[in-house]
Specification:
The complex is a heterodimer of chains A (271) and B (224).
Chain A: H1 2-41, E1 44-48, H2 54-60, E2 64-70, H3 72-79, H4 85-94, E3 97-103, H5 109-120, E4 125-129, H6 132-184, H7 189-192, H8 194-226, H9 229-233, H10 235-238, H11 242-264
Antiparallel strand pairs in A: 1-3, 1-4, 2-3
Chain B: E1 3-14, E2 19-30, E3 34-38, H1 45-52, E4 60-65, E5 68-69, H2 75-82, E6 85-88, H3 100-104, H4 106-111, H5 115-128, H6 144-156, E7 162-166, H7 174-191, E8 194-198, E9 211-216, E10 219-223
Classes of the chains: A alpha+beta (271), B alpha/beta (224).
């Protein structure tokens, strides 16, 4: 019972940190996808006197990633029903050129304003519409959710790290005497801390397996059955097999740090 | 015969050198000698012993053990030097979560001997200290005298060049004390091991010739 308790006291906070890391990865991937969706769905509307190439727009601002010319014939056709062919051609000739501009990332309102200003600096550009207000509210909500989740993950990791340090203190007292005796008899650092390394690395493997199992369950069972769109749509990014390696490496790094803290604070023979 | 231990104007202190325990002590101990160091409680006997295995550094003077100046020795070398020492403590300092046999072969384990050699040596050493039947027990299952015999067996495991013993019979009855003295006498006589014992009282029955140092008023003096 004491054995299990000792291990759980280390495994659980370690799991919390690993969960934090994995949540962070999943959240980043999911939000990247969402952000991509927002970015793809967003475009600026620009009116020019003469036709303009993409390179000409990009010369004004490098956030511009694509252009789509809106066919003027369609617009003229809508407004000139019942009008003679020659009149229709005159209207077409008088009409400016309309473009939808795509951007390379999801930008803040201030950056949109900067693009607008850059575009208007060209004499050929007559008007720019950024749809800033609806974009801004979406962006703020999105940023807020992202920020609060990150704060929560960091907070959870810090609390867990404190719990691990606490457990380290217990380890320190449990193994101090043995390590001191071994030191007196000339044991090198790796030998006298060998047991600690074994125990800690085992705990790291157990914690990684448990966290990986949890995320595999979420990915293959819970996400599908949850009916939550974002979960179902992004099932692929919920947990990647390569994450196991990353979690294991993180767990090893944390426990090796823990063991060395114990080893280096156990020097000297007690009176 | 060569000196195993050589102290020259040795001063040992605690704190930042404020509290001197031993002052300006000079002495030499040769290979195969049996040495008793006595003195009143708090005179610095154990401090002197700790300095011999590098636990405490000299504030002044020099202390050379096995050809190494302990003031300048590197950590790796100190570990190597300690591996050639057998150290016996009044409170035994056995590892309670290890069996008696495993405790005994600790120095062999540190030296990287194979498990087979460790097992053979554990049997031989435990037979030597008459504890063969306790090999698989844990230290806390043994009496004080038996635990100290395990400590002696551990100290002898690697045929050390020098045995340093800090009040080895301090907590033991007369019978157990005599067994411990016999074991150390044998090591000195048969293996030519230098034995240095810190004790408050020299045993009355002791067959070997020995040297006797006394610590008094911070000085280390040989009694002739």
């Amino acid at each position: 019972m004491k054995f299990i308790k000792n291990h759980l006291m280390f495994i659980l906070p370690l799991m919390a940190i690993l969960l934090g890391i994995e949540f962070f990865l999943v959240f980043e991937r999911t939000t990247d996808t969402y952000e991509q969706g927002l970015k793809d769905g967003y475009s600026m509307f620009v009116v020019t006197k003469e036709p303009m190439e993409l390179s000409a727009f990009q010369a004004l601002n490098d956030h511009i990633s694509g252009t789509k010319l809106i066919k003027r014939e369609n617009i003229v056709a809508e407004v000139t029903k019942g009008v003679s062919q020659s009149t229709s051609e005159e209207i077409l000739a008088a009409l400016p050129y309309f473009y939808n501009l795509g951007l390379d990332s999801y930008l803040r309102t201030s950056e949109l304003e900067k693009i607008k200003k850059d575009l208007l600096s060209n004499e050929n550009v007559k008007k720019v519409e950024t749809f800033g207000s609806s974009h801004n509210s979406n962006y703020k909500l999105f940023s807020f959710i992202k920020f609060t989740l990150k704060i929560f993950i960091v907070f959870m990791a810090v609390v867990s790290l404190f719990l691990i340090i606490k457990q380290m203190e217990i380890w320190k007292y449990a193994h101090k005497e043995r390590m001191q005796v071994m030191e007196i008899f000339g044991a090198p650092l790796m030998l006298r801390s060998g047991v600690l390394f074994k125990v800690a690395l085992m705990d790291a493997i157990v914690a990684t397996i448990l966290v990986s199992a949890l995320f595999l369950y979420i990915k293959f069972y819970w996400a599908t059955q949850s009916g939550i769109d974002i979960m179902v749509q992004n099932q692929e990014v919920l947990f990647k097999l390569s994450d196991i390696g990353l979690l294991l490496a993180s767990a090893f790094f944390i426990v090796i740090f823990a063991v060395y803290s114990v080893v280096f604070s156990s020097k000297g023979v007690q009176e | 015969m060569s000196n195993v231990i050589h102290a020259s104007h040795l001063t040992l202190s605690y704190g930042n050198g404020d509290k001197e325990i031993i002052k300006d002590a000079s002495f030499s101990i040769k290979k195969g000698e049996f040495v008793f160091i006595t003195g009143p409680s708090g005179s610095g006997k154990s401090t002197l012993l700790k300095s011999l295995y590098g636990q405490i550094q000299a504030t002044e003077g020099s202390l050379v053990v096995g050809g190494h100046d302990l003031a300048t020795i590197r950590k790796g070398k100190l570990q190597e030097l300690r591996a050639h020492m057998g150290i016996i403590f009044q409170d035994y300092k056995l590892i309670n979560e290890w069996t008696v046999a495993k405790n005994v072969v600790l120095p062999l384990m540190i030296a990287g001997y194979s498990t087979e050699i460790q097992d053979t040596q554990a049997r031989r050493l435990l037979k030597h200290v008459k504890l063969s039947e306790h090999a698989d027990k844990y230290p806390l299952e043994l009496s004080g005298g038996e635990q100290q015999r395990v400590g002696v067996a551990r100290a002898l495991a690697k045929n050390p060049v020098v045995i340093l013993a800090d009040e080895p019979t301090g907590n033991l009855d007369d019978y157990s004390s005599n067994v411990i003295w016999d074991l150390m006498e044998n090591a000195c006589q048969q293996l030519e091991t230098t034995v240095l014992v810190v004790t408050h009282k020299i045993p009355t029955i002791f067959s070997l010739p020995y040297r006797h140092f006394i610590i008094e008023s911070k000085g280390v003096y040989e009694v002739h």
